[in-house]
Write a structure and sequence with these properties.
326 residues; alpha/beta; five-stranded parallel β-sheet; binds glyoxylic acid
Length: 326
């Protein structure tokens, strides 16, 4: 594009000053000539005064943004998951939609998952229970290399999680749509078909880590049929999206002991409603979608680099395939 692009940031008012300042700095550092406007994501009927932009940088924008902005060619999502954006009927399908790749999130997620896996592996919850009864009973500890952890989704984030678990001594199996090679990880691939490679991937896992994007193909993927394939007493860790789980069936499997524990950071409805069964289940740990948050500096650097590449007509990473849904 010949002239300087107009960019609109659509985010929460409270976060705006920091993001705007960081974006200005990153654009200047790259010699990017772009003008920057702000539109409050928290106000559904915000001012119509923001001039038409070619580029939007968004986090949870109201659908109204896309009616106000008819000239968008490039949209950056300030997060890895684009399911909420794709659900907006007026998202311009002709624009290029780019999600964040890693931007500090992969390391944070890998740390969260490792902490969750170790908590259950080392029996910390059971010791906490024993402590309440002043009970001194050492519990047996399995050999780590005999604990098979399956990572469902091997993109940038899933790959980092799998590597962290492997480096910590667990036996790691991974599953992706297409073939991947990761040293020391048993990578499987194929369709999400329980009668095929996906079913084989799940078979006998001691821990299942969900890190898939939410698409029509993955909604409700993890219900009783899939989770019954895991080893008895398996630990389910979900950091992808809550709607992958069939909650009632997960709770039923926990009650029966088919699942031994669940560590859940994402939920179909967030915040998790107060009456939800996960809150009070003794073998569920609920965390409020904190496994990774978008980090300002790496996110801004990535967006500025990609904006510069787009201006040069160079290919971009992290472009969302609308048909695939991620
Ligand atoms: C957070 O859940 C994200 O999609 O970045």
């Amino acid at each position: 594009m010949a002239r300087a692009p107009r960019v609109v940031l659509c985010a929460r008012e409270a976060a705006a000053p920091q993001w705007l300042a960081a974006l200005e700095r990153a654009f200047a550092a790259r010699g990017l000539d772009a003008s920057l406007d702000f539109r409050d994501a928290g106000d559904r009927n915000a001012r119509a005064g923001v001039p038409p932009a070619e580029v939007a940088i968004v986090w949870k924008p109201p659908a109204a943004l896309f009616d106000e902005q008819p000239a968008l060619q490039l949209i950056f999502n300030l997060g890895a998951g684009v399911d909420a954006l794709l659900a907006l009927p007026n998202l311009p399908r002709g624009a290029t939609l780019v999600r964040l790749e890693d931007a500090g999130m992969a390391a944070a997620l890998a740390e969260y998952v490792l902490a969750a896996v170790l908590r259950v592996y080392r029996g910390l919850d059971r010791y906490a229970q024993q402590q309440r009864a002043a009970e001194w009973t050492p519990l047996p500890l399995a050999d780590k290399s005999a604990v098979v952890v399956g990572v469902l989704g091997l993109g940038v984030i899933g790959g980092a999680i799998a590597a962290r678990l492997r480096d910590s001594g667990f036996a790691v199996r991974g599953f992706a749509r297409s073939a991947r090679t990761l040293a020391g990880i048993d990578c499987r691939h194929g369709a999400l078909d329980l009668d095929g490679a996906f079913g084989d991937f799940l078979a006998g896992l001691n821990v299942l880590v969900g890190v898939l994007p939410l698409t029509p193909a993955t909604v409700g993927l993890l219900g009783a049929r899939a989770l019954s394939r895991l080893a008895p007493g398996a630990h389910l860790v979900n950091v992808g999206r809550g709607a992958h789980l069939v909650d009632a069936e997960v709770l039923h499997l926990l009650d029966r002991g088919q699942l031994g524990a669940a560590t859940l950071d994402v939920f179909a409805t967030e915040p998790l409603p107060p009456e939800h069964g996960y809150w009070r289940h003794p073998r569920v740990l609920v965390t409020p979608h904190v496994s990774a948050v978008t980090e300002l500096e790496p996110a801004v650097a990535q967006i500025a680099d990609k904006l510069a590449a787009w201006q040069r007509g160079a290919p971009l990473g992290g472009v969302v395939d609308f048909a695939r849904g991620y």
